[in-house]
Amino acid sequence: MADLTTDFLGIKSPNPFWLASAPPTDKEYNVRRAFEAGWGGVVWKTLGSEGPPVVNVNGPRYGAIYGADRRLLGLNNIELITDRPLEVNLREIKTVKRDYPDRAMIVSLMVPCEEEAWKAILPRVEDTGADGIELNFGCPHGMSERGMGSAVGQVPEYIEMVTRWCKQHSRMPVIVKLTPNITDVRYPARAAKAGGADAVSLINTISSITSVNLDDFSPEPSIDGKGSHGGYCGPAVKPIAMNMVAEIARDPETHGLPISGIGGITTWRDAAEFISLGCGTVQVCTAAMTYGFKVVEEMKSGLSQWMDEKGYARIDDFMGRAVPNVTDWQYLNLNYVTKARIDQDSCIKCGRCYVACEDTSHQAISMSPDRVFEVIDEECVACNLCVNVCPVEDCITMEKMQVGQVDPRTGKTVEPDYANWTMHPNNPSSQAAE
Amino acid sequence: MASTPWTPGITAGRLSQEEIKQNFSDIDPLFEPHEAAVAADRCYFCYDAPCITACPTAIDIPLFIRQIQTGTPEAAAKTILDQNILGGMCARVCPTETLCEEACVREAAEGKPVEIGRLQRYATDTLMAASVHPFERGPETGKTIAVVGAGPAGLACAHRLAMRGHSVTLFEAKEKLGGLNEYGIAAYKTAGGFAEREVDWLLQIGGITVEYGRKLGSGLELGTLTSEYDAVFLGVGLGAVNALRAEGEDKDGVQDAVAFIADLRQSDDLTKLPIGRNVIVIGGGMTAVDAAVQSKLLGAENVTIAYRRGRDRMGASGHEQDHATSAGVRLLTHVVLRQVIGNGAVREAEFEYVTETDGGLAGTGETFRLPADQIFKAIGQTLEAGPEGLTLQGNKIAVDENGRTSIDGVWAGGDCAAGGDDLTVTAVAEGRDAAEDIHRALSQ
């Protein structure tokens, strides 16, 4: 049996599945249920400064995007940080951590960008016995209008400054949670590292409008006919999150900085992918909000089975294994030639590959009167669209052409050697080999 | 004393009012919106979809399903009705398992096709519930056309002609329009008076005058029609029933299945409709199944379908056969009725086992008898003696691909015309296509 335990910044948890700072971790009742269900850790819903509690809207907070059969693919929210009194949250954190010493307890924080504010809250969090803090520089809605959340996360200098204050005024490990609502995630990550962050976590939610009501033309979720952009999450954001994680993992300036991966993790497979891109733990929210805490059982059993099948004894054994394979386009091997192949036995003759190629791509699939679909190698550029639109898994595959074969499209022999754009004769900046 | 399924002979009231109501309720109830959404989500929106090819009326099925998916069932209904004005009825009675749903790629993929028939009904019922008739009559052409027979072919033809601006006179022999939709299909497939409602809805197009009680050959002569109208369409169906050619078939209790179904469909109290304790249906088509299942639902104790060949040769689809057996009907195959036994009224039926030989059938000599109070003949129908001058092909009116008969200015379609399966949907296609051809001919 694979060992799922993780040691992230010295914080141990029985498995890498943490609940992200969000509604599921807003109070003791939920967090106890989560731990009973088997979650490895939680990041407690973001606490603000002492004072009058935050006020939320009294209408809908969430909007959604659906796939077939109303499967929830994307969720958006305009809920603010915890609206419960600070001392209540702190008391509950302490109680839960005392009762579940083996689970990771991270406390998310968002207070004004003033040193005094951070200095005031840090000792009180430390007093709960929590394992670490996560700085919420990510939420794109509501609090950002007050100069917090993503308003901080979008300015690397602020990230560095606040991170430094936290390291200065606390002994706890500091995780900086990054917003995806920027152009290049490496800058905020570098700033976090420069400020002394022990880790980064990403992504927070993406600014979004999920839909517009076509009767009253209000964005959803609608509050009395008006809507405000919310933070988008769920399966739909996973590709965006993984790219950002990979960018940080392979950036020479931040390479090796521990990462807690967040963004649409719904199954064990999603988690394994994030971990392979360098994450030490993963954080989940939407999957739990859609299906309840029990989903962690599938995540644990699936990850464990896959690790056993692959011979990975520990999470560390495959952590970051995909990072060296993330590269720039210019370094992709142009001598790697593939062609689409359609398995006639599994083809159900829907014709989607044909019409996709015919209408929108390279006219590289033929259709016979009796609906046999075949690839025209002379036209196939191996774009993969047919594979992507085929409803039958593995019916269409990309087959690698062997060295020495002639690509009927280009008339060129497949070369054995790696050659990329930087070496290509069409590239004005390429250096001709002398 | 009330009757029961075990009461001997032919009697009414074998089942209670409640049981009858339950038995004859809608066999495939209308989808709820959520069910429709789930079912619609399964469609792959195939290119040049096999289901369209399999549909005799070539409804753009992927398009209408996508229209349901995106919350516009009314637009979906328009897509259906553009091709098939009786799309509501076809959604109920089409053997989809041998047409669109058999061709569905998900049938190939996982043996579970998209539920096209039920989705079609969801769309058409939604539109009809809103009393919307989405077609308008074109500008008056001044041309007049006689349509004889108001079954699916005649109705489809009349509607399309009216849409093209022609004035149609629709001649119907019976008291109600609809043909087999009204008289010949199992009640549970078209519950709630749907056939009649659909006809009323169809006639909203305008430009169609109905004359009831007018039967071809009985005061209504083709020669007169051709001289008085610019064109004539014959959709008269098959009025005569084939003979059994079994000894004693004239005994009381031996009836046509189509007549039994018609009586049943027109009955306003099924507890008053007599049915035998032991019922035998001779035949293997949809009518045989409809007669047998409904006999069972009326409370007959033993119902047997006796068919001369194997199940694979039955006109009723596998789905229909399963429906019959699940209703408690016994399917006997490779048997031929040889003798009807009884003193005045039928009491027993004697069968002989047969084997198939090079397309023919040969008796084995082995016989057996079944108790029988009623025997329904469902061995196919034939054209009643047609008007003189019409060339026949087999026993049906010969037509070309546009439905033109051998007489200039006379078209035919539906069951009375040669070619095509005897299905509602095929009749609709033939009526529609003949109308377009008539329109082309009259526009020249």
Describe it.
The complex is a heterodimer of chains A (434) and B (444). Chain A has 434 residues and is an alpha/beta fold. Chain A folds into 2 domains: 6-325, TIM Barrel; 329-423, Alpha-Beta Plaits (2-Layer Sandwich), CATH 3.30.70.20. In chain A, 28% of the residues lie in helices and 20% in strands. Chain A is built from 12 helices and 22 strands. In chain A, the strands form 7 sheets. Chain A has an 8-stranded parallel beta barrel, surrounded by 7 helices. In chain A, strand 18 and strand 19 (373-375) form a beta hairpin. In chain A, helix 3 crosses helix 5 (156-169), helix 5 (156-169) packs parallel to helix 6 (186-194) and helix 8 (268-276) crosses helix 10 (295-310). The termini of chain A are far apart. The relative contact order of chain A is 0.11. The mean pLDDT of chain A is 96. Chain B has helices at residues 17-23, 33-41, 50-54, 61-69, 73-83, 87-93, 100-103, 105-110, 116-129, 152-163, 180-183, 194-202, 222-228, 257-266, 286-298, 318-326, 424-443; strands spanning 10-11, 144-148, 167-172, 208-212, 215-216, 219-220, 231-234, 240-241, 254-256, 275-276, 278-282, 302-307, 330-333, 335-341, 348-357, 360-371, 374-377, 381-382, 392-393, 396-397, 410-412. Chain B has a 5-stranded parallel β-sheet, sandwiched between helices. Chain B is α/β, with parallel strands linked by helices and 444 residues long. Chain B has 17 helices and 21 strands. Helices cover 35% and strands 20% of the residues of chain B. Chain B has 3 domains: 33-129, Alpha-helical ferredoxin (Fumarate Reductase Iron-sulfur Protein, Chain B, domain 2); 144-239 and 383-443, FAD/NAD(P)-binding domain (3-Layer(bba) Sandwich); 241-377, FAD/NAD(P)-binding domain. In chain B, helix 5 packs across helix 9 (116-129) and helix 14 (257-266) crosses helix 15. The radius of gyration of chain B is 22 Å and the shape is globular. Classes of the chains: A alpha/beta (434), B alpha/beta (444). The interface between A and B is medium-sized, with 14 and 15 residues.
